[in-house]
């Protein structure tokens, strides 16, 4: 290639350079600066829950159409794909998918770091703790929800969130941030716990600094263990977050990195863009989009850290696809070679928020105009909205169809789908993730980079460990 280039006439050399230039700009120097045959000191695993390959195209096309940016912050780190089936279904749930990523075991849907026979199996946070590393979990769902749970608890049914909360505080994890306050407080204090325990008080006694708002997080000391519980249940969709006192995923990630970076023996941080998945379940394109963009900001914070640190592996991969998102769809029985990101830029609320306004008695036409920028509804759309005002599910479907028809975005499921998801990696050890792998491989490869064999590690389902570093 180089000799051909030297022999080429000047004109063709110039053409070559002009053609080559955009791809050089679009491709940050990730691959060249990723160092080989070296184990990372720190690992940041970022999971965009429910983010399939179509979600990447969807978000990338949106930022190209509405900003000066050409691609997602992690696009150029793409190294392969991950297969997601669980032990009892070709379509996994988040518990089985998370268990595979965290422990290296295929298990049944609903299992939280137990194998297909229900026996606890060691997860990556236990491997990191074994190595003396500091650990953290940062999510936008309840912290007791499936993905954070598989990195901090062992239960046979993901619904046992009150038990998961107890185990999370006993796991020696330095940083826990997300929603789910209701599983930490007894009924008498506004929570849902029926055992009367106040885990917020117990966490404080065990050495956690507890915060419940973005401003409290900002003022929190940058050392010691931290428990951030910013919502009773899940945190808000990013598109609705301005109406809350909740921090963004990127703010939480940056705060976690500030605290964890002091660990001499390195750290393991798991960050989940949890509600990308929930928006997929609701077939809510705008909420899906904004939670992806919020997740991308968190990835940027992680990559900035890794690029300056040089000892940190950043791995970005989803647990499964949600919603069967289609970027392009039929309209009135016709296939169309287009999709339009622009109408999504006018949407300023989740479909859930719009549905709540309509069910509270606001005129559907007015809600669509103010929250989705849609002034002219077709007669059948108005009719469908008015017929759905007493039925949240029907209302969601009507709103999804109205927005999808205009952007030509489609959905094929209210659940997950079986499609492989993409893997992105940067930093020492990144080569281990090149190619197409079962999701169980991810945990095995990460443990190997940590120098730990997960199958030789004893899980600690009820271990009482002091959380302070
Ligand atoms: Zn999931």
3D architecture notes:
This protein folds into two domains: 38-325 and 414-456, Alkaline Phosphatase, subunit A; 327-410, Diphtheria Toxin Repressor, domain 2 (Orthogonal Bundle). By secondary structure, the protein is of the alpha/beta class. The chain has helices at 2-7, 10-26, 30-33, 53-66, 94-103, 124-130, 146-150, 161-169, 199-205, 214-219, 249-260, 275-281, 285-309, 351-359, 364-372, 379-387, 392-407, 439-450; strands at residues 42-48, 78-83, 134-142, 175-179, 208-211, 225-229, 267-273, 312-317, 321-322, 326-327, 330-331, 334-335, 409-410, 416-417, 421-426, 435-438. It has 18 helices and 16 strands. The protein is globular and about 65 Å long. A ten-stranded mixed sheet has the order 5-6-4-3-7-1-8-15-2-16, sandwiched between helices. The chain has a two-stranded antiparallel sheet with strand order 9-14. The chain has a two-stranded antiparallel ribbon with strand order 10-13. The model is unreliable at 1-36 and 462-469 (pLDDT under 50). Helix 10 links the parallel strand 5 and strand 6. The structure holds zinc ion. Residues 49-50, 94, 97, 277, 319-320 line the site of zinc ion.
What is the domain tally? 2
Mind telling me the C-alpha Rg? 23 Å
Task: Indicate the percent of residues in helices.
Answer: 25-40%
- The class by helix and strand makeup works out as alpha/beta
Characterize the overall form: globular
Distance between the termini: 53 Å
Characterize the largest beta sheet: strand count, sense, and whether it forms a barrel.
10 strands, mixed
Strand order of the largest sheet: 5-6-4-3-7-1-8-15-2-16
Q: Count the strands? A: 16
- Enumerate the distinct ligands: zinc ion
CATH class category of the largest domain: Alpha Beta
Mean pLDDT: 91
CATH homologous superfamily classification of the largest domain: Alkaline Phosphatase, subunit A
Regions with pLDDT < 50 over 5+ consecutive residues? 1-36, 462-469
């Amino acid at each position: 290639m180089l000799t051909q280039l030297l022999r080429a006439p000047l004109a063709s050399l110039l053409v070559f350079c002009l053609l080559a230039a955009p791809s050089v700009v679009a491709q940050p120097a990730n691959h060249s600066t990723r160092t080989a045959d070296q184990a990372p000191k720190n690992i940041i695993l970022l999971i965009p829950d429910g983010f399939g390959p179509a979600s990447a195209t969807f978000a990338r096309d949106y930022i190209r159409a509405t900003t000066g940016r050409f691609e997602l912050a992690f696009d150029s780190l793409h190294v392969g794909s991950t297969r997601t089936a669980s032990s009892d279904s070709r379509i996994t749930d988040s518990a089985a998918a998370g268990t595979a990523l965290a422990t290296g075991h295929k298990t049944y849907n609903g299992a939280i770091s137990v194998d297909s026979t229900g026996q606890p199996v060691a997860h990556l946070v236990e491997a990191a703790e074994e190595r003396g590393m500091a650990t953290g979990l940062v999510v936008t769902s309840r912290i007791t929800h499936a993905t954070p749970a598989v990195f901090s608890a062992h239960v046979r049914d993901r619904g046992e969130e009150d038990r998961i909360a107890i185990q999370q505080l006993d796991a020696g994890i330095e940083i826990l941030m997300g929603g789910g306050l209701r599983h930490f407080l007894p009924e008498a204090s506004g929570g849902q716990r029926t055992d009367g325990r106040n885990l917020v008080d117990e966490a404080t006694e065990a050495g956690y600094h507890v915060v419940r708002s973005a401003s409290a997080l900002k003022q929190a000391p940058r050392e010691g263990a931290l428990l951030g519980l910013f919502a009773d249940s899940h945190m808000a969709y990013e598109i609705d977050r301005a109406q809350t006192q909740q921090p963004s995923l990127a703010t939480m990630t940056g705060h976690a990195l500030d605290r964890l970076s002091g660990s001499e023996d390195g750290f393991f941080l798991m960050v989940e863009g949890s509600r990308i998945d929930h928006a997929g379940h609701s077939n809510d394109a705008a909420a899906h989009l904004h939670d992806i963009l919020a997740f991308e900001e968190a990835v940027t914070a992680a990559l900035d850290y890794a690029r300056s640190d040089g000892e940190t592996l950043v791995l970005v991969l989803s647990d499964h696809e949600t919603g069967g998102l289609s970027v392009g769809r039929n309209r009135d029985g016709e296939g169309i070679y287009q999709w339009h990101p622009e109408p999504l830029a006018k949407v300023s609320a989740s479909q859930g928020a719009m549905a709540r306004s309509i069910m509270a008695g606001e005129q559907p036409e007015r809600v669509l105009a103010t929250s989705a920028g849609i002034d002219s509804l077709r007669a059948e759309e108005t009719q469908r909205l008015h017929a759905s005002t007493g039925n949240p599910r029907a209302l969601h479907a009507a709103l999804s169809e109205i927005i999808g028809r205009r952007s030509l975005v489609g959905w094929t499921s209210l659940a997950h789908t079986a499609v492989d998801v993409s893997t992105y990696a940067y930093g020492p050890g990144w080569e281990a993730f090149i190619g197409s792998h079962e999701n169980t491989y991810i945990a095995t490869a990460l443990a190997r980079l940590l120098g730990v064999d997960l199958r030789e590690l004893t899980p600690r389902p009820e271990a009482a460990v002091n959380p302070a570093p």
